[in-house]
Amino acid sequence: MSAAVRSPNRFLVKFPHLRQDFAASLVVFLVALPLCVGVAVASGVPAELGLVTGIVGGIVTGLMRGSSLQVSGPAAGLTVLVFEAVQEYGLPALGVIVLATGALQLLMGALKLGRYFRAISVSVVEGMLAGIGLVLIAGQLYSVAGAKAPASGLGKIAGLPEALIAAARSTEALASLALGAGTVAVLVLWRRLPRKVRTVPAPLAAVGLATLAAAAFGLPVATVEVKGLLGAVQPPSLTAFGDLASVGLLATIVAFTLIASAESLFSAAAVDRAARRSAHPVRQLFSAAAVDRLHDGPRTQYDKTAVIVRSAANVQAGARTKASRVLHGVWLLLFAALLPSVLAYIPIPALAGILVHAGAKLVPVRAIVTLWREHRGEALILVVTAVSIVAVSMFEGVLIGLALAVVKTAWEASHVRLDVIDKGAGPVQAYLSGNATFLRLPKILDSLEALPQDRPVELDLAGLHHLDHACRTALENWAQRHSGAGTEPVKVTSGS
């Protein structure tokens, strides 16, 4: 047999899954293209930068180790944070923020800190995603209506009725609303169409149909501004690095690092623990663990991150190795290099509609109802976290949620019991057991102070697993007060 015949066989032996990976990469590319552009526009940066992010996520991140079928790239959940950073510090500073964030994430990965995110409360995760979703929906509805969104989260929500009423009086705004609403409708109804039709990814179909409708009917709607790939990519200057001395910028970098990591890793932990309760889409969103359940290949390494929208498309398209995610980055690069002018035909309301749909998936309405019935404390943490993100900011909202979760856990762990044996004569015997912490201190003191003041008391602490300093001090003070009432000193035994 000639070498020409044997060569292709050797190639197929070396890359046995190339056919499946090649087909999957095209599907992921078609899913990623509108998402990359939409996230970039909503973040207040040139559309081409969204493609650059997808290219880096595909080619650079794709070659790295981790779950072989995960696909990285721009995520809708970071849209709000990026937009705020660009508005406050400017586009040049965004490069510094991203570089510093990447360095911190590499450090966290090297230190194997990713696994610790699995210990985070599910309610904080879902509250974070819900808050992101609400701000994302509110902000993008203004884009759908062809209006400018207020800066704050509360301002966005409060101003929506007025913006929609004003849009109803404008022909241009009505056309924009119709296009955005049509995009959302296509995304919602696409799954009900025949399977052959659904071979085209829903985001691509929605944007494609909206673009055709805008061109065919000459709709007066805003379209994506194209500056060219080379013009959009501007490395940060040395002056921009000088902004690292700003406390506000450093806080933003920390927020980027934590939120970007948490968006994947928190949800991965949530899915691991909550998948048995339901298959709510929030638990299948932005999660490495969700991808693990879709295939039998290598498991996720929690010190690497990715986004589930493209990852799920990759798995469902039949990808077998990481070649598919690398190739999808190659296709994005070729598109950005050869066909960037095509972006100028894409209507902004269509991209906003995609992000409104993505934001809606982040709000776990059913999960809140279920939690309220079964675990009201967890439901309260979820809601407070989401509302705090909307009212204050994403970083502070997550911190508030984490603080509430810690307090709730400490409260539930502080089970303490006081058993009193009073035989009518002799000393009153009191047995304290459980975990005595400051959170339960009022209950403990109320019970002890209710004991007869004219009788000696024997307090047995042998049943306590934990006694914190505040409780120990309070018990000592109570014993002094009780002993000072003219009775025998309180006898305290610890059993040790």
TrEMBL record:
It holds the Pfam family Sulfate_transp. The keyword Transmembrane helix applies. The keyword Membrane applies. Residues 18-385 form the SLC26A/SulP transporter domain. InterPro entries: SLC26A/SulP_dom, SLC26A/SulP_fam. The chain crosses the membrane at residues 22-42, 49-69, 89-107, 119-142, 173-190, 202-224, 244-271, 330-359, 379-407. One of its GO terms (cellular component) is membrane. It is a multi-pass membrane protein. GO terms for biological process: transmembrane transport. It is found in: Membrane. Keywords: Membrane, Transmembrane, Transmembrane helix. This is Transmembrane sulfate transport protein.
